[in-house]
Amino acid sequence: MIDQKLRISTILPTGRQIDPQTFHNLYRVTLRNGEIWAVDTTGAQFGYTDPLSPWHDFEQYRSGKINRECEFGYIRHQVYQSHARFPLRQALAQKIEKEELTKALEEKIPSLAKEHGGKLNAILRGSDAAFKQAKDRFLDQLEDHLREAVTKLYALEQITRRNKEIECQLSQNMADPEGQKSLEGMIRFMASAIGTAAFQ
């Protein structure tokens, strides 16, 4: 990333400051009409709050170099799913928490959709006023479900259960020779993505 409008530094518990990383992941989307767009859902960390821009503009004004190109879903399936194989406790804990939160929210989708004839895209139908009313109602319901799911996720009994699951998985990881061999490659990848200081 070049020409950053915002720079966020991380301060470690030791007081050491980690300079902001210029490595960044985003989506390149080609529409059926041939237009190519940059979909940058996390660009705000660099000061770019608009998640959409023509790919040509992104390349010219924000990107100094493209380090790698992956198929859609690579990070989710190949990187984050592989966290469970490595003895990185924090990464494993985050993976389990995200999976449980996702499952809790997915279970609520049918009840959210029920108000709109069973399909969430029904929100898009009707006048602007009807859309705004349906959108606001949906977002209020989603917020309620999210609060409920997060409260349950961090209840003492759930934290205790997850800690046992994490310790069990870590023990299995340490006993797996293939997992040990793959660990170095994973650490190298993560270090390039979020900075080597996190692994020192």
Describe this structure in words.
The chain has helices at 55-61, 74-79, 89-114, 128-153, 156-174, 177-194; strands at 10-11, 17-18, 27-30, 36-39, 52-54. With 200 residues, it is mostly helical. The chain has two domains: 10-69, no CATH class; 83-195, no CATH class. Helix 3 packs across helix 4. The longest helix has 26 residues, at 89-114. The protein is globular, with a radius of gyration of 21 Å. Residues 194-200 have low confidence and may be disordered.
Structural key phrases:
mainly alpha; two-stranded antiparallel ribbon; about 200 residues; 3-stranded antiparallel sheet; single chain; globular; 2 domains
Quickly describe the structure.
Helix 3 packs across helix 4 (128-153). This protein has six helices and five strands; from the N terminus they run E-E-E-E-E-H-H-H-H-H-H. The model is unreliable at 194-200 (pLDDT under 50).
Q: Helical percent range?
A: 40-55%
Supply the helix-strand structural class: mainly alpha
* Main sheet specs: 3 strands, antiparallel
* Low-pLDDT sequence parts: 194-200
What is the percentage of strand-forming residues?
5-15%
Q: What's the helix-strand series?
A: EEEEEHHHHHH
Mean pLDDT: 78
General form: globular
Total strand segments? 5
Tally of discrete structural domains: 2
Q: What's the Cα radius of gyration?
A: 21 Å
Q: What is the overall number of helices?
A: 6
User: Distance between termini?
Assistant: 24 Å
Strand order of the largest sheet: 3-4-5
